[in-house]
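Slide 14.
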Amino acid sequence: MPFAVVMHAPGDPDVLKFEEVTVPQPQSHEVVVRHTAIGVNFHDAYVRSGLYNTLSLPGVPGIEAAGVVEAIGANVTDFRPGDRVAYVSQSYGAYAEKRVIGQESLVLLPPNVSDEVAAATLLKGLTAQVLVQQVYRVQKDDWVLVHAAAGGVGLLLCQWARHLGARVIGTVSTPRKGEAASRAGCESVIFYRDEDFVPRVLDITAGEGVQVAYDSVGKDTFFGSLQCLAPCGHLANFGQASGAVEQFEVSQLFPKSNSLSRPNIMQHLRTAQKFREAAASLFDALSMGIIRTGQIQSISLRDAAQAHTELESRERTTSLVLKP
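Slide 15: predicted structure.
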C-alpha cells in the first residue's frame, strides 16, 4: 500500500505522520498520479497549524505536486498513462506517494521543466503571474514594492516586475537575503529590522510612492504599505505571514484614491482553461529566463515535519520539495 503524510489534529510540525493509505480507483473524470516531487508552501503550514481550518481531519495536506499519470478514468481525454503532469488544487492530498485527482486540475509539463522545478515553482510562479499580469498589470517605469523580497514568491515577483520594466524596491531581513533580492532585480533593498520602510520608500521614490505594493506579510506591514502608495496606487495583500490584518475603515483609501485587493489565486485559476493559460505563461517565462527558480532543496516525504520546520525558519532562502 502507498504511504502519505496524515494530519489527525492541527499543531506543530510533529503532527505530520507518515502512514499507509488507500488510493481509490479513479472516477470517470479522474486520473491516478504517482508523485515524483511535492511542493511545500506556507499555505501547508497555515493548514497544519490550524490558522487555516480548511482540511477535514484526519486528512492529507498539500496542494501542489508533479508526477506521472498511472491510470485514467473512462471519460478522461486530456491525459494518458505516462504523461508528465503537475497541478495546484484546492483539493488537498499532495503529501502522498500517489493520489486520485480530477483531470481539470492537471497541466502537462513541457520537456524543459523538470518535476522538481514544477513542484517547487508552480504555485509560487502562478501567484507571481496573477499578481503582475492580472491583479495589477505592471507597466514600464512603475515603482513596485515587494515585501519578503527574498521569499519564494518575492524572488519571482521581483524578477518578473523588473523584466516588465518596473523599478523594484524589496524589503528583507538580512544582508544575505538582500543580496538575493538584488540579484532578482531589486533596484533598492530595505532592511526592515534596521529602518522604517515607509520613509525609506518615500525617499527612494522622491515622495511619489509606489504604483503597487505586493504584501504577503500582513499585520506587520499592511498599514505601512498603504502609506507607501502613490496616488491611485494599488495594494495587493496576498498573505498574512505575520498575522491577520486588523479591521480598518475603507475611507482610508479615499485621500489618494488608492485601491486594495486580497487576491485568492485559486479564483483567478478557477477553470481548467484559466489555469492552463496561466501555466503556459509561467512555463514561457521559465524557458526564456525571465524568472529563475534558484536552488531547490529535496527532503524525503517521510520527513515532512522537518520540511515544515525549515519552511518556517526566516533564514531559509531555498525552495523545498518533498520526494516520495
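Speaker note: The radius of gyration is 20 Å.
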